[in-house]
Amino acid sequence: MIKRAWMACCIAVLTASHAEAAGPWVRGYVVAFYDPAFRYGGRADYSRGTEIEPGIDCLHGSATHFTYPAHVAQTLSLVPWRTAKEVAAIANPPADGLTRDPAGVYFHTWRAASAYRGYHPGIETYINPFAAEDPGQPQVTGRIGEGFNLDGKIKAADFVSPDGERGIDNQLYRAWGCDAPWRGDKGNGTLVLRSNDKMLEGLYTIVIRVSGSQDPMNDDNATLEIGYSPDQIMKDARGNAGADYSYRIVKSEQYTKLRARIKDGVVETEQAEIHMPQIAWFYNQQRDAFFRQGKIRIVHNDDGTAAGLVGGYRNWRDVYTQNAFTQSGGVQGVREHEDHVALYYALRRHADGMFNAKTGRYDGISSAYRMKLVPVFVVDADKPMAILARDSDQIGRRKAFDETAAATIKAVETLVPQPVPPESGELAAVDGIEIGPRGVPVRGRGRRAYGNRAAPPSPGR
Q1: Which has the closest alpha carbon to 73: 62, 83, 60?
Q2: Cα–Cα distance measured from residue 35 to residue 182, given in angstroms and rounded to the nearest whole number
Q3: What does each C-alpha distance from 313 to 170, 271, 347 come to in angstroms?
Q4: CA 20 to 30 Å from 105, out of 9, 209, 227, 279?
């Protein structure tokens, strides 16, 4: 069975009659599952899409911002210009006919209130998260974590890998690993499932090609290529990525070629800059996941599939914007139960790479992502190709996302509040809803009240 799978995933093998023989060889894979390398330790309630037990790695619990009135009141109590009476009214608004979510949360009220928590009422605080108080993000307390020793050191804050390797750098897990929608047994976190469903439905495709000149089990002069493919993932009868199909690899901005070494079948690349597609569930997120000092490891399974791990330092501002503004900060906060103001502080606090001499801070955060790989044929495109926009209706949304991300990066670098870009989903009350004096949503006033008015200067926070 192993030999058959090996033969199926080889594109060109000069010694085709014997898989074990030395000589030029090629193996190809398509990424069938892709998620952050967060360990899971708690029991989940899938009807609620969250954990009901925190797990051994999150002893302080999972992030549950904007989940229940008590959580909303606790977060909004940090807003300096909100009175206790206003906080209570917003946390428990009266029914007004606006759409509720299935859990009975007053989505529009909480969504609008969550976006304006700064030291001044006119500051949108997902674009300007530094202007709000840190509501607190539960941090991972466990010692075990997947990833790589990126800096060659063993530090107190490092993790130990599941197989006992010390010095593992994965501070993204430390900062974000207790975020509820990314947690779930065997990849069943709500956002993990959503992003992988979209990948399998054709939003984007990642392929890997490994080649060498000696032996696929032991080769000290191998090459690994990873990148975007314009070909949609082909599924098997069960809806999973199928084996043995052919995919083109495009040498675009989301492509990297690395030197690799293979020992006892385990592929490990050199440490270098890696460009590849990032996790996404909307077209506006479909962009480069840039890993500095990155590495990739591939371990083969007995069934012919393989487990992949990619890690490196990512700019934490990119991580923040790519997740916060896929819908809008308020939607992510209320619907997905994650607060990006808290995430901003956690990412900045745990950043550990890419030191910026101008600011005296780190711009990068060590990260690791898992990949499930299925054997396929990976071939070169017959002509140069760009990354395709599979949904033309999303072009405008992509532009709005880029403008919102740029405003956020400028804000957190300068600590000067930035206005909301005109087409951004971050307008004060998306859908034209503003919170009235008793916590009741009022239609038609949000854009005028907060829209594009310039925010006041920062008081030096």
Answers
A1: 83
A2: 8
A3: 9, 11, 12
A4: 279
Sign of CA dihedral 352, 75, 50, 129: negative
The pTM of this model reads 0.85
Q: Strand pairing partners for 44? A: 51
* Greater model confidence, 77 or 286: 77
The full 3-state SS of 221-262, as one line of letters, equals EEEEEEEECCCCCCECCCCCECCCCEEEECCCCCEEEEEEEE
List, for residues 14-35, the tens digit of each pLDDT value.
333 334 445 699 999 999 999 9
- Chain centre to alpha carbon of residue 443: 33
Q: Residue 368 and residue 173: Cα distance in Å, rounded?
A: 8
Sign of CA dihedral 348, 349, 355, 360: positive
pLDDT at 62 over 90: no
Q: What angle do CA 133, 135, 136 make, to 5 degrees?
A: 125
Alpha carbon separation from 362 to 351, 388, 410 (Å, rounded): 6, 33, 16
| Cα–Cα distance, 456 to 418 (Å, whole number) | 9
Q: How large is the angle between the packed helices 69-76 and 84-91, nearest 10 degrees? A: 150
CA distance linking residue 340 with residue 117, whole number of Å: 12
Residue in this structure with the two tokens 């393989």, named with its chain if needed: 306
Which residues are within 8 A (CB) of 83 and not within 5 positions of it... i.e. 6 or more apart? none
Dihedral over Cα of 230, 236, 237, 239: its sign: negative
144 class by beta-carbon count within 10 Å (0-12 exposed, 13-18 middle, 19+ buried): middle
Q: For the chain, what's the residue count?
A: 461
Place of tokens 């990354």: 387
- CB atoms near residue 35 (< 10 Å): 19
DSSP per-residue codes, 11-27 = S--TTTT-TTS-S-EEE
Q: Residue 236 class from Cβ within 10 Å (0-12 exposed, 13-18 middle, 19+ buried)?
A: exposed
At 129-187, the pLDDT tens digits run: 999 999 998 899 888 999 999 999 999 989 999 889 999 999 999 999 988 888 876 67
Three-state DSSP at 409 gives: helix
Q: Which helix (H) or strand (E) holds 447?
A: helix 446-450
SS (H, E, C) 265-295: CEEEECCEEEEEECCCCCHHHCCEEEEEEEE
Give residue-wise pLDDT tens across range 236-272: 999 999 999 999 999 999 999 999 999 999 999 999 9
